[in-house]
Amino acid sequence: MPGNIDLFDFLSDSLLILIVSFLPFKEAAKTSILSKRWRYIWHSTRNIEFNESSFSTHHVLPTDGREAQKHVFVDYIRKWMSLYQEPKVDRFRLSISYPYEFHAEIEMWLRAVINRNVDELDLNFYWLGCEGRLPNVHIATHMRKLCMCHCYPLHSSFNISMPSLRSFKYFGSVRGFQLQELTSIEEADLDFGLAYGLPNRRLASISPPLYLEARHLIIKVGLLAKELLGIVMLLIYCPMLDTLSVKLGFGRQVKVGPYGRKFNADDHLYEINLKAFLRRHEVHFQGLKEKLKVVEVEGYRGSRYEEELVHFLMEEAQVLEKITITSMEMVPGDQGHPDKYFQNAQRVLGFGRASHSLTFSINSGNHK
Amino acid sequence: MSSTKIFLKSSDDKTFEIDETAARASETLKNIIDGGCLDGVIPLPNVSSNILPKVIEYCKKHGGDNGSSKKIANGGVDKDKEILPDYDEEEDKREKVRVDELKKWEEEYMDFDQQVLYDLMLAANYLHIKGLLDLTVEKAASMIRGRTPDQIRENFNINSDFTPEEEEEMILIEDEWDDEWAFD
């Protein structure tokens, strides 16, 4: 009577473990109540995810506050990880706010999953504008996906070759470190922390040898002098690129410079003559000239460096088919001039261009 | 070069023919072939004649394609050399069509009842056919995803063998997961 047979009886525990590994962590956990056999199967899932913001427990009163909750969360992970026996981990996700005091343990967990050949690593250490540092671990070179959210390597000597990496996401302030030999990369998403009020550091510090095979690159940045150069540098190393999306935000206008002196980030200190720089360094944009087809710019205001970027792309990209510019919309409480931004956006129609088949779509952010 | 034929015998003593290139989609068969122990017919005591044609169908579709792409060949090149592979746009389009077509094929291929799913999963596991194992395991997971424990038990005829006390405890855990792990 096939109707009464528990079909999972045919399968070994190792196959059940494979099945729960295809479930989100929470759903894998729920299989523990199906029957005695399923009780501990999920403890071997290869898809591990601990997310502080969705973890809380009856044992802690709300009045005990965040710190107490975080300790319960960490206790839970500690216990779970200490029981983990599987030889292979597919994915490890950890979201924990400001994990400063738990660094040693996080380091241990990361070592554990890296030793188990983890394919995807996803870390988020964000808390109220603060970032956490990546524990001192040697990120595995065979990893396929790496996502670092507000989690930065401490040393600029963090330098690693990742020939298998397909997807790289980095959210947070710009730090000096290098990922090398990214020969398999398909997707790169770099967000240098504009939405989070983090200090906007030098993008220009992204340095070769870094070849991104990405076809579509999304950059979120406040475009100031240094960022302009940084983006241009980045383009050199993306010779396969056919679509470039630039999402502009407000840069941090005022910074504290050396000796506590306040200066504007557009200060002459950072004045860069893009063309002279590129000539001096004999930079070639073969990929950009022959491959780039689509450029999308959001949040355009028409500042000097924004214009310079669009102008540069139009002059270099010979097969460019479409430029879409959406001007910056009215931000509540902001003194901006959306109409002016829209007018500025239309100025790009008059720029010189290398491509004969270029079409434009200029939109006002307020009419979206 | 035309491919050598290999003969596979199911658990119920029926013999099936498969090209060597297709058979190589299975690690187990590949090892037998490479090991030179190929002596006429390969017996597969764990795979019945209901399932074996289905397995062969998969291998035919995926034979010769062992997942290695030019990207892997490109790893660890001499840094001084140009490391950019030739990029052919037409090739890229063909690749996309091929992937779409394969997805459609997989969808049709995977349309069968639960019993077949388990038998196929066991066969894929036994023959070490990674792609087929992933397909079947993922399908089983999709039948669990988003369902309540009761629905899962009913769907798969799972007998909850907890004692009443344990049952009580389980319900508490269930509630806890529902309330406290509000993911998504």
Comma- or semicolon-separated keywords:
heterodimer; A: 368 residues; alpha/beta; 2 domains; 11-stranded parallel sheet; 9 helices; 25% helix; 21% strand; elongated; B: 184 residues; mainly alpha; Potassium Channel Kv1.1, Chain A; 3-stranded mixed sheet; disordered C terminus; F-box-like_dom_sf (chain A)
Q: Please list the strands of the largest sheet of chain B in the order they lie side by side.
A: 2-1-3
Task: Indicate the proportion of strand residues of chain B.
Answer: 5-15%
**Helicity level of chain A:** 25-40%
State the separation between the terminal residues of chain B, measured CA to CA.
53 Å
Rg of chain A, rounded, reads 24 Å
Helix tally of chain A equals 9
| Tally of discrete structural domains of chain A | 2
How would you sum up the global shape of chain B?
extended
Shape of chain A: elongated
Radius of gyration of chain B: 22 Å
| Helix amount of chain B | 40-55%
Class inferred from helices and paired strands of chain B? mainly alpha
CATH superfamily of the domain at 5-64 and 92-143 in chain B: Potassium Channel Kv1.1, Chain A
Description:
The complex is a heterodimer of chains A (368) and B (184). By secondary structure, chain A is an alpha/beta fold. Chain A folds into two domains: 46-151, no CATH class; 155-368, no CATH class. Chain A is built from nine helices and 17 strands. Chain A has helices spanning 13-21, 25-30, 65-82, 103-115, 225-236, 274-280, 286-291, 304-316, 338-346; strands at 47-51, 91-95, 120-124, 132-133, 145-149, 151-152, 159-161, 167-171, 178-180, 187-191, 216-221, 243-248, 254-256, 262-264, 294-300, 322-327, 359-363. In chain A, strand 2, helix 4 and strand 3 form a beta-alpha-beta unit. Chain B is extended, with a radius of gyration of 22 Å. With 184 residues, chain B is mostly helical. In chain B, 54% of the residues lie in helices and 7% in strands. In chain B, helix 6 runs antiparallel to helix 7 (130-142). Chain B has a three-stranded mixed beta sheet with strand order 2-1-3. Classes of the chains: A alpha/beta (368), B mainly alpha (184). At the A-B interface, helix 1 and helix 2 of A face helix 6, helix 7, helix 8 and helix 9 of B.
